[in-house]
Design brief:
The chain is α/β, with parallel strands linked by helices and 189 residues long. The protein has a domain of 128 residues: Response regulator (Rossmann fold, 3-Layer(aba) Sandwich), CATH 3.40.50. The protein contains five helices and five strands; from the N terminus they run βαβαβαβαβα. The chain has a five-stranded parallel sheet with strand order 2-1-3-4-5, with helices on both faces. The protein is rod-shaped and about 110 Å long.
Amino acid sequence: MIEQVEKGRGRRRDVLVVDDNPTSQTVIGRRLTRLGFRTMLCGDGLAALDMLQGRPFDVVLLDMQLRGLSGLATLREIRSAPRTADIPVLMMTSRHDAAGALTALAEGADDHVAKPFDFDLLAARLNRLLDRVGVIDDLRRTNATLDARIADRAMQLGEMRMLLDEALADRARLAAAMRSMQVREPSSV
């Protein structure tokens, strides 16, 4: 069995489970909780979008076929909002054909799993998505640090350019003054 999510990762990971079947919600929530995830359950797409605006989640486990706002329409809304656009979304469906997976991936899902699924496999997929997000977050922090260093260097370069321009202007004035002094001095013949 896959080791719990917390082991070696330092913290629990928050998963929003969106499924309109209460039994599926409960089973998925309990099993993921036992595997070390912290789960929040939701029964429809609109409520999921509200929850995503209200608090951060590390990953969304989204049923493709929801009543009301479909899973794909919910996914499109998640991807279109700047605050949620980068949250990993794993789509789940009862369709066992490649078309379901291709549709989910084409709409922006990060992964796809067919029901009923093996929970160890589901946990492995969730962990892979979350690890990838961790790497991306590390890269963003590194890029932000580099951007700050570049901005600092650009300011320093601008200051140095100003000092150089002033020094060149002083040099030009000094050269002009020396030329004018040479012209004014009487020649000694």
